[in-house]
Design brief:
Elements: H1 2-8, E1 13-14, H2 38-41, E2 51-59, E3 75-84, H3 89-103, E4 110-114, H4 124-132, E5 140-143, H5 145-148, E6 149-150, E7 157-167, E8 170-182, H6 186-191, E9 199-211, H7 212-219, H8 232-235, H9 244-254
Parallel strand pairs: 1-2, 4-5
Antiparallel strand pairs: 2-3, 3-9, 4-7, 6-7, 7-8, 8-9
The chain binds serine (SER).
Length: 255
Amino acid sequence: EKFLKFFESRGHKIVPSSSLLPTDPSVLFTTAGMQQFKPYYLGEKSPWGKNVASCQKCIRTSDIEEVGDERHLTFFEMLGNFSFGGYFKEEAIKLAYKFIVKELKLEIDYVTVFEGSHGVEFDKESYGIWKNLGISEDKIKKSGIEDNFWGPTGTGGPCGPTTEIYVNGIEIWNIVFNEFYFPGTREELLSGISGKKLEKLKTPGVDTGMGLERLAMVVQKVSTVFETDLFEPIIKLIPEEFNERKKRIIADHAR
Ligand code: SER
């Protein structure tokens, strides 16, 4: 609620979470907050205006083998603010900084920005914005396409360089600058063998995602997402004979 109110009072329309079963036929489950907004990055007019925020239920099976450690889940809720041709890098980074540092009073360990590759340049604009906000250069790390270039989802869609915020050693917020459209899968983009090329989007957009469970973990000062108030009531119901890792897996899958 704090997140949604923060963005509502700054010109964002609050949009309810869409179903976990998406209308986008290129994915089996809703995997990100941006999924329901995909057409608006590609020029279709958004019924909610240019700037929106949501708390989206997501299922992601890509990390399923890691569920049971301190922070990976298959079901989670993603807090996000989005802009379709409204604001861009400067405003998006400033809003994120304000929410984390001023509103939640958390300390940023470091941030990452895209170092450039696959024909896309180093994101020196984001680097400069973080620097102007007072983040020292040793805390602005450059990183590659694997971690700092998001999307596309499914068989094609909007994608672009990202900047990520780390608090207490974990990534909590991913801020994507959708500057491009890629007419193929992410695998095709990474390998380059399909010959498909990134196309510049007419109107660049912003797509951010912050895991509610990870945020709760750092705000509530606990060392795993399973110790937050989102999980404790479920974990308590699981019989003692299961070891810690099994309890976590059961709790995640039960949700
Ligand atoms: N779509 C990006 C992600 O899922 C940012 O919301 O991380």
